[in-house]
Amino acid sequence: MRLRHIEVFNAVMQTGSVSAAARLINVTQPAVSRTLQHAELQLGFALFQRARGRLTPTNEALALFPHIEKLFEQLDEVQRLAVNLRHGQSADRLQVLTVFALSRDVLPRAVAGLRRRYPRVQVQVQALHTPQVVSALLLQEADVGFVISFAGQPALEHELLAEVDMYCVLPKGLLPASRLRGAGLELADLAALPLVALDAKDPLGMRLGQACREHGVGLSPVVTVQTYHAALAMAEYGLGAAIVDGCTALAADRAKADVLPLLPRISVGVNALRLGQRPGSVLAQAMVQEMRKALRGLLVTP
């Protein structure tokens, strides 16, 4: 199929008729009909069954459509990248991406430090999941991103800023006070508690699962979440114990939850990400420095 065939096919699949498809892509109805016929001739099978002015997709068309949708998503990304390249980035504006775990305490402190150094800079911050941070950086939609437990991407440079320990957040009253006086909570102690678990595909969730297997510990999740702050909120609400990174543990409401180090110690890295093929701006480098300082100042004991 040629690109024009794909565009017309996609328009008809979205609208259900030749006339509506023609309006969508701003061409004439005869042009849509001719393009569909040419596509079907090249493919060797029908894409639509025609009855009473409506087009019903064939099984072959339904099989093609998910792949066409993915292609249009990629074309949208190309267009977004082209726009970003055309407009460039303002010298007095910094676009920062972060995961939610760093957005509550660490990043605000770092942004405040940056603003003290560069009072005229405009900082745009967006909190996303790690895959979205990576995708946006690759599309040159931001200057720098901050994530936890980065698995690696060839086109991105990553810089380790700090190692962050994992902590247990326990609803008040879940354990007696005598159990809270030690140096921390053993992983094995969690086996008898209801647990707010992280998604098994999350980097921190994977580290926890590996540690459990190594120590022969079986946990009993009652809720599974995708973000560390969601796990914290569930623990504060009393649903169960949550294991979160030290940055998230900083935000715990001590009136609702107890926070203890997880033993044996498990740590994850906080990383700065930048596009490898672009030289880092002065502002981006300064932002990384301020994040490192903020982490050093905050990550003593939550």
Structure description:
- The chain is an alpha/beta fold and 302 residues long.
- It is extended and about 80 Å long.
- The chain has helices spanning 3-15, 18-25, 29-43, 59-87, 106-117, 130-138, 203-215, 228-236, 246-249, 282-298, and strands at 48-51, 54-57, 93-98, 122-127, 144-148, 156-171, 185-186, 194-198, 220-225, 241-245, 257-263, 267-275.
- It folds into 3 domains: 3-87, Arc Repressor Mutant, subunit A, CATH 1.10.10.10; 93-162 and 269-298, Periplasmic binding protein-like II (D-Maltodextrin-Binding Protein, domain 2), CATH 3.40.190; 165-267, Periplasmic binding protein-like II (D-Maltodextrin-Binding Protein, domain 2, 3-Layer(aba) Sandwich), CATH 3.40.190.
- The strands form 2 sheets. Strands 3, 4, 5, 6, 7, 8, 9, 10, 11 and 12 form a 10-stranded mixed β-sheet that branches. Strands 1-2 form a two-stranded antiparallel sheet.
- It has 10 helices and 12 strands.
Set out the fold topology:
Blueprint: H1 3-15, H2 18-25, H3 29-43, E1 48-51, E2 54-57, H4 59-87, E3 93-98, H5 106-117, E4 122-127, H6 130-138, E5 144-148, E6 156-171, E7 185-186, E8 194-198, H7 203-215, E9 220-225, H8 228-236, E10 241-245, H9 246-249, E11 257-263, E12 267-275, H10 282-298
Parallel strand pairs: 3-4, 3-5, 7-11, 8-9, 8-10
Antiparallel strand pairs: 1-2, 5-12, 6-10, 6-11, 6-12
Helix pairs in contact: 1-2, 1-3, 2-3, 5-10
Features:
single chain, 10-stranded mixed sheet, 302 residues, D-Maltodextrin-Binding Protein, domain 2, Arc Repressor Mutant, subunit A, extended, alpha/beta, 25% strand, two-stranded antiparallel ribbon, 10 helices, 3 domains
